[in-house]
Write a structure and sequence with these properties.
The protein is mostly helical. About 50% of the residues lie in helices and about 10% in strands. A hairpin with a 6-residue loop joins strand 1 and strand 2 (about 40-45).
Length: about 180
């Protein structure tokens, strides 16, 4: 069974996509800098899981595979302080909030690059994502990241989204929360 932990390549890519800046829009501290040893740098950034990696983690989703937990789509680059903050209060820092932080931060970084091609790429990405603006953030993230098998993941997340009202009815029935009259 694969590990739910990020591979080093995923961590490096998250850091670079975030320009080594914390993705929390209220923080945006640089997460890399010089070290007293001229051959080293100091890194205070961390790749954080949006949906928890383990059952005891915040925002853990039972029906998510370990492979999905370890994908870049499930990651966000944060400074150590913000990583601790989001893992201390999952109610304030929901999955939706963290996906919005990452999406907004990548737009911020891309717009700061400043050349015309990057601005065109940002406009194209925003145009593509506008189709999905009323869908859950995981759907937009899959479209942006295009992880291995992304088409299947996108279809799966869309099916989950569209079927959630029916799943809720089934869960409610199992818990006897709906009377037979309420099913009509």
């Amino acid at each position: 069974m694969p590990s739910p932990d990020f591979k080093q390549k995923t961590i490096d890519t998250l850091a670079k996509r975030a320009s080594f800046i914390c993705s929390n829009p209220d923080c945006r501290v640089s997460t890399v800098g010089p070290n007293s040893d001229p051959a080293k740098s100091t890194l205070i950034g961390e790749a954080a899981h949006i949906r928890g990696a383990r059952p005891t983690s915040k925002r853990f989703m039972v029906n998510m595979t370990n492979a999905s937990r370890a994908e870049i789509t499930n990651g966000i680059w944060l400074c150590r302080n913000c990583h601790k903050l989001i893992d201390s209060d999952e109610n304030q820092y929901s999955v939706e909030t963290l996906f919005a932080w990452r999406e907004g931060h990548e737009k911020f970084v891309l717009s700061a690059l400043g050349n015309s091609s990057d601005k065109l790429e940002l406009a194209q990405q925003e145009s593509l994502l506008s189709i999905f603006e009323h869908y859950p953030p995981i759907i937009r993230r899959i479209v942006i990241d295009k992880p291995d098998g992304w088409e299947w993941r996108l279809a799966s997340e869309l099916m989950r989204y569209f079927n959630e009202p029916q799943f809720k009815k089934i869960r409610d029935l199992r818990g006897d929360f709906i009377s037979k009259k309420g099913l009509a």
